[in-house]
Design brief:
By secondary structure, this protein is of the alpha+beta class. The protein has twelve helices and eleven strands. It has two domains: 195 residues, Jelly Rolls; 106 residues, Arc Repressor Mutant, subunit A (Orthogonal Bundle). It has a seven-stranded mixed β-sheet with strand order 1-2-3-10-5-8-11. It has a four-stranded antiparallel β-sheet with strand order 4-9-6-7.
Length: 329
């Protein structure tokens, strides 16, 4: 399990370990469509999801996780659009058909639920916070709010722009949608629901006149490349006691070294060396917490031949000496 370090956010102090708390914010008699069949599972760590029913066919979910990842299970539909905004943390999302989607802070992904109906989202940093908008075009189109009806918003056009393209749309941090979604996280509870209802209508109006097919940021995801990166990640994390250079990895997996460095960072949010340092420390924390193995042995198991170097890095990342960390558990 990924353990939060001293640099991780502490936004779940009220949630017990190994718990996923889901809180609905809507009248229980309403038909909630997709959310009623949305079954996220969190094998390790903890998380909280606040669900808001904004309009028929339109939901907002505020998700926060301190975990290595989450599994999503729900029906697939080419008529349901998901808009995912990453506020903080990093996510590597393994979608249908071997597609791999990466989100860093400020990034936005738009896709239909055909892609994520049975998917795994990994959090390389051990934490993630974001907002997901779920839009059922069939239901929402029959129940347009007055402002959108007056503006003649066309769900048929939204379908054409966001459901027909062959692949997710990823927008980088700083996009117009990022600037609209960013304020949604720190709203007082007393006005969250009406504020969300107003803001989401503004977002839909923007989407109705914006043509994503003309945007240069549409990313195509290739199964071969995604699979290769997953193989490299698995190889590194399963062989912690050995350190590999970029050249060795490039040769072993038949990939250009420059491409390897660029694509690994784009996918997992950190250069390989930095990512592995964090991963080694997370694994060391788990072994210190859950076993009586001597610290010198744990240091060697996670790739440190020098225990003093291991202690130095451990304290820099966690803020504690390994001996102090073990005492607290």
């Amino acid at each position: 399990m990924s353990i939060p370090t001293k640099n991780s956010p502490n936004f779940l102090p009220q949630i017990p370990p190994e718990t996923l708390k889901i809180i609905p914010h809507y009248p229980q008699h309403k038909q909630h469509g997709r959310l009623g069949q949305w079954q996220p599972s969190l094998p390790q760590g903890k998380g909280i999801i606040d669900h808001f029913h904004l309009f028929p066919g339109l939901h907002l979910s505020h998700v926060r996780f301190l975990a290595p990842g989450v599994h999503y299970q729900h029906p697939a539909s080419d008529m349901v659009i998901e808009i995912n905004h990453c506020r903080r943390g990093r996510a590597s999302w393994h979608l249908h058909g071997g597609k791999l989607l990466s989100l860093n802070a400020g990034d936005i992904d738009i896709h239909t639920t055909n892609y994520c109906a049975n998917s795994q989202m990994d959090f390389p940093a051990g934490f993630y916070e974001g907002i997901t908008l779920s839009l059922d075009l069939k239901v929402f189109g029959k129940n347009l709010p007055p402002i959108l009806r007056e503006a003649q918003l066309s769900t048929e056009q939204l379908y054409h722009d966001f459901c027909m393209p062959a692949g997710p749309l990823v927008l980088p941090s700083g996009s117009p949608l990022d600037r609209l979604l960013a304020p949604l996280y720190n709203i007082p509870d007393s006005i969250r629901l009406p504020y969300y209802q107003l803001k989401i209508q503004e977002i839909l109006l923007l989407l109705s006149v914006w043509k994503p097919t003309a945007a240069p940021n549409r990313q195509q995801y290739h199964t071969e490349q995604a699979g290769r990166l997953q193989e490299i990640h698995a190889f590194l994390t399963e062989n912690l006691s050995t350190r590999y250079t970029i050249a060795q990895l490039a040769q072993r997996f038949n990939i250009n070294p420059t491409t390897l460095k660029r694509e690994f960072k784009a996918t997992y949010g950190l250069p390989i060396a930095h990512f592995m340092q964090e991963y080694r420390m997370q694994e060391a924390m788990k072994r210190i917490r859950e076993t009586d193995t001597p610290l010198s042995v744990i240091a060697q198991e996670v790739g440190y031949t020098s225990q003093s170097k291991f202690t130095q890095v451990f304290k820099a990342i966690t803020g504690k000496l390994p001996t102090a960390y073990r005492r607290q558990f």
